[in-house]
Design a protein that fits this description.
Length: 222
């Protein structure tokens, strides 16, 4: 019998697609596990308002657990949260990592210390195939963070589709943004009972990154 699992949840394409693949493999997803940067009151890395992550959880019908941390306290916060979820029957944690060995090393060390199983459904897959498979499965996502070194503000709000993938291929970056080149927010897909429609947003440039600050959205039943 496969264990109940939590998902290390960013709101982006890899965490969502890894959840999808884990569920297709028979795992039961019990919780989304998300961390908010206490210093800026936004999600770690992706810079999303925490309400948007709650909206995704509602759209999928999966409870979300959110914790406030700083970059210095992230590991401790992660361990505390997973230890609590273990008490609720969680035996594994799903991660969306593809090919960064240092991330895998951290995952395996921390999960070993916690006594839970690390599950990485995307690991070792060819990055462009991950992206095209995400699109072909019917997921929808938009760019919410883009490193100004590689992108201008016109990339913000771009939909992740075949044209997007083709244009990314011409850039000297990891095509899935595994090194932080860009991040996405998933708005719809086969796991969603409701679609998230962004109705108002603004663009901001902060510390070398473009951010799409989503101001308003609607939940639309499919």
């Amino acid at each position: 019998m496969k264990p109940l699992v939590a998902i290390s949840w960013s709101g982006g394409k890899e965490s969502c697609f890894s959840l999808y693949r884990a569920m297709l493999s028979g795992f039961q997803a019990c919780f989304l596990l998300n961390f908010i940067n206490r210093d800026v009151r936004k999600s770690m890395s992706h810079g999303l308002d925490q309400r948007l992550l709650v909206a995704q959880a509602e759209a999928m019908g999966i409870p979300i657990v959110q914790r406030e941390v700083t970059w210095d306290s992230y590991e401790g916060g992660f361990k505390d949260a997973v230890a609590e979820l273990k008490q609720k029957g969680v035996g594994g944690v799903v991660f969306g990592d593809i090919d960064l060995q240092e991330h895998r090393d951290w995952i395996e060390r921390v999960c070993d210390e916690l006594g839970v199983t690390p599950i990485m459904p995307l690991w070792g897959d060819e990055p462009e195939r991950v992206l095209t498979s995400f699109v072909d499965a019917g997921f929808e996502a938009v760019v919410v963070t883009a490193k100004a070194e590689f992108f201008d503000q016109n990339w913000l709000g771009r939909k992740v589709n075949r044209r997007f993938i083709k244009e990314l291929g011409a850039l000297d970056i990891h095509i899935c943004g595994e090194k932080g080149e860009y991040h996405t927010f998933v708005t719809n897909g086969p796991l969603f009972q409701k679609r998230i429609e962004i109705t108002d947003s603004r663009q901001e440039l902060r510390e070398g990154y473009w951010f799409l600050d989503i101001l308003r959205y609607e939940m639309v039943r499919k």
